[in-house]
Every structure is written in C-alpha cells, then in structure tokens.
Specification:
With about 600 residues, the protein is α+β, with helices and mostly antiparallel strands. The protein is built from 19 helices and 18 strands. A hairpin with a 6-residue loop joins strand 5 and strand 6.
Length: about 600
C-alpha cells in the first residue's frame, strides 16, 4: 500500500495528504463543536423560554386585570346602578325592557373592545340580562346551571374562576372559561352575579403563537386541582404524576425543572399568575430541540467534502505551468462576463489547458450568438405584449361603451317624467321628489356616453343618490357636502362616489345604533384631487382593514367584475395609472373614510381623457 502511494505523481500525493489532514481536523473539530453547541443551545433555549413565559404571564395578568377592573368600574357607574336599582326595587314591568337594552349595549361594547371576552351575562333574582347580539338560550335558568352549582360551593367568595366548559348561557357550544363576580346594589338586599366568559380558543391561540420553539407546549394549569385550564396537550398531567416539582408548580412559585417521560427529557418553566389562580407552564422537548442541532453533523459532513475537494484543487493548482495559463483564461472569461466578446484565449500547447481554452472559445462564440438572438426575441415579445395590452384596453373600453349604449336615455327620462307627473297629480310629493332625484341620478350617470365628467357633476350624482337613500331609510342618517371650488372644476371618471356611499350606508350607517352621518368632500391635494366619503359607523377591525388594503394594492385583474371598492380602485388605476386609486382609513368605534385619489391635470373646460 505504501509502495503504491510513493509511486504516485507529486500532485496526487499532495492531494491525498491534504485530504487526510482535512478529514481528521474537520471531523474532530466538528464533534467538539456539536457537543458544545448542544450544551449552549439547551441552556440558551431554557433561558429564552423562561423570559417568554414571564412576558406571556405579564401580558395575561394585564389582560385579566383589565377585564376585572372594567367590570368593577362598571359596578360603580351611576347609570349602571340606577338602571339596576329601578328594575330591582320598582315593580313596574317597563323597567325590564329599558334595563335589558342598556345592559345589552354595555355587554356588547365590552365584547367588542376586548377580543378575549366571549360574552357577558348579569343575573338578578328578578330576571337576567344578556347580550342581545348573541344567541341566548331562554330555556336555560342560571340557577340551574353547573356555573351556579360551582359558585354555591364557595359561598364566601366574591370572585370565582371556573374551569373551561361549553357555554351554558348561549347557544353554539363554544368552549369558555368563566369569571363570576358577586356584588349587590344599594337598596336591594339580594346578591347579583355578573358572568364574564372568556374565549378558550383565543387564549389557546395566543399561547400557541408565543411558543419559543418547535416541540414546545405552553398551557395554563389550575394551582388548586392541577388540571389544565387552557392547553392542547395532556403531557403536563403525566409529568406531574412522577416528578418532584409538583409542589413548586402548584404552590405558586417561579421556577424551572427537568423531567423524564418515556425516552425523552423535558425542560419545564413555570410562572404563577397574580390575577387568576393559575400557573403558566412551558414544556420543551429536548429531543426536538436537539433535532436541529443534529443537522450540524450533516453540515459538518458537507463541509468535510467541500474541504477535501478544495484541498485537491489547491494541490493541483500548485503547478506553475497550470496556474499561469489559467489566469490568462480567467481574464478572458472576465471580459465575457462584462459582455465583451472580442479577443480569444491563445495557448500553444495541446494539454488540458489548451483543450479547455479551445472549448471556451467555442462557447464564447456560441453565447455571443445566443445573446444576439435573445435580444431579437425580447424585442419581438415586447412588441407582441404591447399589442396584446392595447387590444385588451380597447376591448375593455368597447365593453364599457356597449354597456352604456344599451340604455335609451330619452325613453328613461320620458318614463320618469311621466311617473313624476302621475305622482304629483295623486298628491304623492315624496314619490315625486324621489323620481326627480332618480332622473337627476341617471342623467349624470349616462352623461351622453362620456366616461370623464367634471367633479361637480360627480358630486351632483352623489347628491341625487343620497336623496333617494335618505327617503328610503326615512332620515336614518344625515349627510353634508364640502367642496373646494378648484377641485370641482377638475374632471374625474364617473361612478366613483356612488359605490363608496353605498358601502358607507350598508357597512357603516346600518350597523350603527341611532342616527348616522355621511360627509362627502372634494379637495385639492399635492398634484391630485381627493374625493372622500366619511361615515361615523362602527368602523373596521384592524385585521379586516389590512386585508382590504392588501387587496387594493394587489395586481389588477382585467376581468374582475362588480361595482364595489375594488371596481372603483381598478377603474381609477385603469384610466390614470398605478400611482392613483383608492385609500381606506378606519378606526373601530369611530367610523371609516374612503378616499379616491385622481390626478388634477384636466379642468372642467379641458380636454377629455383619450380613453
């Protein structure tokens, strides 16, 4: 074996020796690195899990404290106490209806303002109050529920935390965790119970999202019984059965422990909660944690193979007769990289470098020819793409024109005038007023086939639509216009404001308790005209608002139908480009503002768009 080794060529000997050195040094270093990394990763992850558990604990404490504080503040509210006292002390049955409406609104506001709350329920000996927006089960009596039975087992307490269960007070079978507050009303001798049910699914999702690593489970455990309050793994019960940290976990202490179950080891971090009698527990599987570190072995193997290959390369590159022509070949290749195809690699010998040089020269010429052909193909494709885009644009315009041409303006106006005359003859002033608004609405909508109209006509079109809707909803809302004269002299694509107003009515004003308000404005911006529709409805949830904004920013679909927000946005971008479109702003409880942004280039007397 050694004889064969010494008979090898020198460059082969150098390659073999370099490879052996790399194998030994890399393998030994990799083993030490893996062991050290495993110890450091385990300790670091345990500390990281402990920090996250403390953060989650503080967050949940603040959440639950805020819910309890809000409930206690509501009990001290004069309106709350006066409403409850009138119903409990005075036997007039009319007080129940007013009290039910008031408490339902209060409970609904609590549920919307705090996502963790599933429902709120108030029990009094004379009757119960609940959230009218939820499917309450009228056949269920609070005194006959398991909730009331559990409360009776602790007669001296004023705050009760009950284990998770299906909601007995409302239909749907949602899993909830019940918080019950017992209190009294001045002037009334018997006790009242307020039941605040928390969403077990939302708390569970929060715990899942806050997990430090894969193989990690976070849950809430009852300190009295050791049962899982919120969690999706029965592992805690199995670990508690044979571990020595049970007393610390259930005793309300902060700590960390190690436990063995089956063929896996677990690191357990736990932190007691102050507001509720629960302990937050995180269980981290050591096997799962180290599973990723085991990938370092594979990584070390790849490094080893790369190092062996590099060592062979270094050994062969040591020959000067190879290095010099390779450097010359590299310079020629760099010129090709810079798109310079002039010049050839010249090498007089017939060895490997000479063959490589001839092959490179051939490839360079082929690449040059392919690049030239590719440029021709790209130019042809660009021309075809532009032609297709133009055809699609013309097709879209033709479809819009065809749609407008289907309506006969003279027939429509004559018919509406006849209906208006008939209504006036019959003394139906409201019908005549509505017909007049409708005629104005369609007169501006048709616009003699024009797509681009003055902003003041678009505002008049919106006023006609609002007049019709106001009569339809019997003055459930009021509206106002604010217009900048300079903005009104500009032009815009028609049918922008009407869909926005329709959305404000159906998704804003109709969802509001009491009278609503809609405000339509035309204002000048920086190089643009801003047409906005603002309502004082309930607003949007931030997640829904984010989804709408994301879809408005998405690539337009040339075949998308509809006359909603997205159609308005697409039409603006279609006529004026991607720099313009629709912007949505909303705040829960305060309302929504939809703003159409169009260029301010053309005025009322200017030229109409080419479209």
């Amino acid at each position: 074996m050694f004889h064969r080794f010494f008979n090898l060529r020198l460059k082969h000997k150098i390659a073999v020796l370099c490879a052996a050195l790399v194998i030994v040094s890399t393998g030994f270093s990799g083993l030490l690195l893996y062991r050290n990394a495993a110890d450091v990763a385990t300790e670091t992850e345990a500390d990281h899990s402990s920090e996250i558990i403390l953060q989650v604990n503080n967050y949940l404490n603040e959440k639950l404290k805020g819910i309890i504080t809000r409930a206690l503040n509501m009990r001290t509210d004069s309106t709350f106490n006066d409403t409850a006292a009138r119903f409990l002390i005075d036997d007039d049955p009319r007080h129940y209806a007013s009290a039910l409406s008031y408490f339902s609104d209060v409970f609904l506001e609590m549920r919307y303002s705090e996502p963790f709350i599933a429902s709120v329920f108030l029990y009094t000996p004379k009757g119960s109050f609940y959230d009218l927006s939820l499917p309450h089960d009228p056949g269920v009596r609070f005194t006959g529920t398991k909730l009331f039975e559990a409360i009776g087992q602790k007669p001296s307490a004023s705050v009760y935390w009950l284990p998770r269960s299906e909601s007995e007070l409302y239909r749907g079978g949602e899993k909830v965790i019940s918080l019950v507050l017992r209190f009294s009303i001045s002037g009334y001798g018997e006790e009242l119970y307020m039941v605040i049910q928390l969403k077990e699914s939302m708390i569970l999702q929060y715990l899942r999202d806050s997990r430090p690593k894969e193989g990690s489970t976070t849950m809430l455990v009852d300190r009295e019984s050791g049962d899982i309050v919120v969690g999706d793994s029965p592992l805690i019960g199995q670990l508690l059965a044979g571990s020595d940290f049970k007393s610390g976990l259930l005793g309300g202490e902060f700590g960390r422990s190690e436990a063995q179950y089956g063929d896996d080891s677990y690191t357990i971090n736990y932190a007691p909660m102050k507001v509720a009698p629960w302990t937050l527990v995180n269980i981290q599987s050591q096997r799962t944690l180290l599973e990723k570190l085991r990938g370092m072995k594979t990584y070390s193997g790849l490094i080893l193979l790369i190092s062996i290959t590099a060592s062979f390369g270094v050994a062969f590159a040591m020959a000067a007769t190879i290095t010099r022509p390779l450097q010359a070949l590299e310079k020629t290749m760099q010129r090709v990289r810079w798109r310079k195809f002039d010049g050839r690699f010249e090498y007089p010998y017939e060895d490997e470098v000479g063959k490589l040089g001839r092959t490179f020269n051939f490839m360079k010429e082929e690449i040059h020819e392919l690049i030239r052909q590719q440029k021709g193909y790209i130019e042809q494709l660009q021309k075809e793409k532009e032609q297709v885009r133009t055809e699609q644009r013309l097709k879209r315009v033709a479809e819009l024109k065809a749609l407008q041409a289907q309506m006969s303006p003279h027939f429509l106006y004559n018919t509406l005038d006849s209906i208006k005359w008939k209504a006036e003859m019959e003394g139906q002033a409201d019908i005549a007023k509505m017909i007049t608004a409708l005629a104005s609405f369609y007169r501006i909508a048709l616009s003699r086939g024009k797509e681009i109209i003055p902003v003041k006509e678009e505002l008049a079109h919106a006023a006609s639509y609002l007049a019709i809707q106001s009569m339809r909803y019997q003055d459930k809302f009021e509206y106002e216009f604010c217009g900048d004269p300079e903005a009104e002299r500009r032009t815009t694509v028609k049918f922008i404001l009407q869909p926005l107003i329709e959305n404000a009515i159906y998704h804003g004003i109709k969802q509001r308790q009491g009278g609503g308000r809609i405000r339509i404005c035309a204002e000048m911006g920086e190089g643009s005209v801003r047409l906005s529709v603002e309502d004082n409805g309930p607003g949007m949830h931030p997640v829904k608002l984010q989804l709408i904004r994301k879809r408005l920013q998405a690539v337009r679909d040339e075949h998308e139908d509809g006359y909603g927000l997205y159609n308005v946005n697409n039409r603006i971008k279609f006529y004026y480009g991607e720099a313009y479109g629709l912007k949505i702003a909303s705040e829960p409880g305060k309302g929504t503002v939809a703003t159409a942004i169009i260029p301010s280039g053309a005025s009322e007397g200017g030229a109409e768009s080419d479209v």
